[in-house]
Design brief:
This protein has helices spanning 14-32, 38-45, 49-56, 70-77, 91-109, 114-119, 123-130, 137-144, 156-167, 171-187; strands at 2-3, 6-7, 63-64, 149-150. The protein is mainly alpha-helical and 197 residues long. The strands form 2 sheets. It has a two-stranded antiparallel ribbon. A two-stranded antiparallel sheet has the order 3-4.
């Protein structure tokens, strides 16, 4: 079955893919306001609404909330945060973070690899999300909003290629860049130092 131009993976539902695309679009809109990353914001601002929607059509999150950081989420989800101690964040970032955390909770609560494939979330982080009740998420969003960043923000080549491809009328070039995001997701799972055999 095809979702847009993406073949549906057995681990991902069409609803999960549509939701991640919507979140990606909201994230790019937020980035275009210069809230998330000023450098990225200037680039995203140059895209039309249709071009942002095309760039957002990825089978993975374009945003990150440190989902790959097991220790961070283990502490946070075990009650290791205080809303009063959270740094101030703008309302738009908190609203987006609230939706992203609810989505993460929902995806982590479902069986399978969806949280890992869509968000880069490790299994122990997904397990920690499963143990949290949904009513704890709004307060958590206030504390986590300052951690909202572009996924692979360190990889300027990816973001430049994505924005440049979205700005051109060449869907094939955009699809190739979006596929390179899957390579980045896989590369982040590799050990950073060689292991002895």
């Amino acid at each position: 079955m095809l979702i847009g131009n993406w073949a549906q993976e057995p681990h991902l539902s069409s609803e999960q893919l549509m939701s991640i695309r919507g979140l990606n679009r909201r994230f790019l809109d937020l980035a275009g306001k210069g809230i998330v990353s000023p450098g990225l914001g200037m680039r995203v601002l140059s895209l039309s609404s249709a071009q942002r929607a095309a760039a957002a059509d990825c089978p993975y999150a374009l945003f990150d909330l440190r989902f790959q950081d097991d220790a961070h989420w283990r502490d946070r989800l075990a009650g290791g945060f205080e809303v009063a101690d959270a740094p101030n964040a703008d309302e738009d970032s908190v609203d987006f973070t609230r939706m992203a955390l609810f989505y993460a909770w929902h995806v982590a609560s479902s069986a399978g690899l969806a949280a890992h494939l869509l968000l880069g979330m490790h299994a122990t982080t997904a397990d920690a999300f499963r143990r949290v009740s949904v009513d704890e998420l709004p307060a958590l969003a206030v504390a986590e909003a300052p951690n909202l960043t572009p996924r692979w923000g360190h990889c300027k080549a990816y973001w430049s290629a994505l924005i440049n491809a979205a700005a051109r009328p060449d869907p094939g070039a955009l699809r190739r860049v979006q596929l390179s995001g899957l390579q980045l997701a896989a590369a982040t799972q590799l050990p950073s130092e060689p292991r002895e055999v």
